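Q: Got a minute? One more chain.
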Amino acid sequence: MSERAFAVWAPRPTRVQLDVDGARHPMHRDADDWWRAEVPANPDSRYGFVLDDDDTVLPDPRSARQPDGVHARSQLWTPAAPPRRWPGRSIEGAIIYELHVGTFTEAGTFEAAIDKLQYLVDLGVDFVELMPVNAFSGTHGWGYDGVLWYAVHEPYGGPDALLRLIDACHDIGLGVLIDAVFNHLGPSGNYLPRFGPYLSTGSNPWGESVNIADAGADEVRRYIIECALRWMREFGADGLRLDAVHALVDTTAIHILEELSTETQALAAELGRPLSLIAESDMNDPRLITPREQGGLGLTAQWDDDIHHAIHTAVSGERQGYYGDFGTVGTLAQTLTQGYFHAGTYSSFRGRRHGRPLDTATIPATRLLAYTLTHDQVGNRATGDRPSQNLTSGQLAVKAALVLGSPYTAMLFMGEEWGSSSPFQFFTSHPEPELGRATAEGRKAEFAAHGWDADEIPDPQDPATFTRSKLNWAEVTEDGHARLLQTYRQLIALRHDEPDFADPWLDHLRVDYDEDARWIILHRGAFAVVCNLGEAAVGVPVTGETVLAWDEPTTDGASTVIPGHSFAVLRTQVR
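A: Always. Here it is, folded:
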C-alpha cells in the first residue's frame, strides 16, 4: 500500500469525503473547486466520494473501472502495459465495419470479438467501429445511455480486455474507432449533477443536455475533451465517432468540436499517427468537415444519412417518415453527385429548408460516410428488421455496389455483408423496474402513434430481445448468404485494387440514369458500375468487359442487358 493522490471536481457540495476500501478521509477544497487528498491505497482499491451529509458512496466521475456496475464504488486501475505502437492509417476512403460488442458474437465480449478479426481482414475491412463501450447501467444495451464515460463497460470485459482487442486489431492491420456519446447522460446511475453543473437548462430527445456553454461549462468541456483524448492516448484507438453532434448546443465563440479537433490534431502529432473524428449529424452542414483554417470545425468526416436514404428508398420503395423526399432514381443520382440531397432545399419531413451545399471542388467525397444501413437505420425501426428480411439478395447486392462503387468512405454494419437474418432490436437491461417499464411502454407508444400494433413492438427489457439480435455466424457458409458475402469481398477488393475507385472528387464522378427503366450508372474512370433497381431486365447504353456482376449481363454490341435486381462492374476502356 502506498500514498495515492485522489481528486474530484465538485463545486456543489460544501463537504467531500473520500472513501477508500471503507475508510473515510477528509478532502480539502482548492480555489478551483477541485477537492484533493493523498491517502494510502492499494493498486486495486475500491473508492468513492461522500458528499455533504448523505452517507452514499458515489463513484468517481472519472472512474477508469466499475467492476460492480455504475452505482457502486470505483476501482483504481492501471494498465498492465501501454497500447502497442503502430503507424496508424487514414479513414478517408477506407472500409469501416460498425459492430455492437454484445451482439457481434454469442459471448458478447471483447475477447470473443478478437476471434473474428481475421474474418474482417479477409473481408477487406480497414477499421472496426465499436458502438459505445463506456459504462452504462445494466448488463446489456446499446451503450448510448452511458453515465461514466471514462470507464469501460464491465460485462464486455472491462478496460484490460478493450486494450487487448485494440492491440489485436492493430497487430493485423485494423484500425479502431470508438463511438463516444457526449450529448446526454443515461437515466440510471447519473450522479454527476450531485458534483457540479454537468447538465444545462436545455434538453434534447434523450434527456437533459450537457452543459457546454452555461455557467460552469469550462470544467465540463474539459471533462468531455479529456475523455475523448483518453480513448486515443491510453487505449490506442484511432479515432472517435461522435454521436449526434447536432445536440451539442454550443453558443460560445469556439465550438467544442473545433476545440476537440484542435487537441486531437495535437495528440496525433504527439503520437505520430493519424487520428480521426467522425461526426454523426443530421444538419447537412459542410462546416463540420471543412478545415479550421478555412473557417470550419476541422472534423475528419461525417455520417451521411442522405446517401443512405437515397439508396434505400430507390431500391426498396419505402417512402414513409423521413424517407418522404427520397425514392426516385433521379434523387439517388443527385445525392451521389452532390453529397447531400437537402442542401438549402425544402425538407417535407422537417417542414423547412434544410442543409447547405457541399463545395465538391474543395471537400473530397471521402469526408462523407456512405452506407446501406447502420445500427440506427435498423434498430430504430419498429421491429429492428434488417433490409435482408425484406429485400431480395439481388437488391442487397445492388445497394452494396452503390456504396462500395461510390467515391465515399464506406461503412458496413455487422452482418450486412452476408445478409444476416438476425434483427437488431432496441434492447435495455435497466435494473430499476419502474425505469424498465417506462422504457418499454414509451417504445410501444412511440410506434403505436405511427400506426404500428403495440403488440408487435419488442419489449426492450425482455432478455429475448437482446438474444434475438445476436449474429448467427452459422449463416456465413450457407448458400445464399455465402454468395452475397463473396460479392462484398469482391467489391471491396476492386475498390482497394483499382486506382480509379480511389478518386475522391465528386467533380470527377459522372452518373447516368433512366427514371422509367430504373437503371443508374456510376462512371469511375475506366469503370462503370451499372445497377438495375427494377425487377425486369434492362438494356443500358454502356458496354465493356464484365469485371464483376451479381447476375451475368449480356450485350448486343451497342448496349449491355442487366438482369433485374442486379449490378455489373464493366471495364469500359482499354488501358
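A: The two ends are 71 Å apart (CA to CA).
Q: Perfect, thanks.
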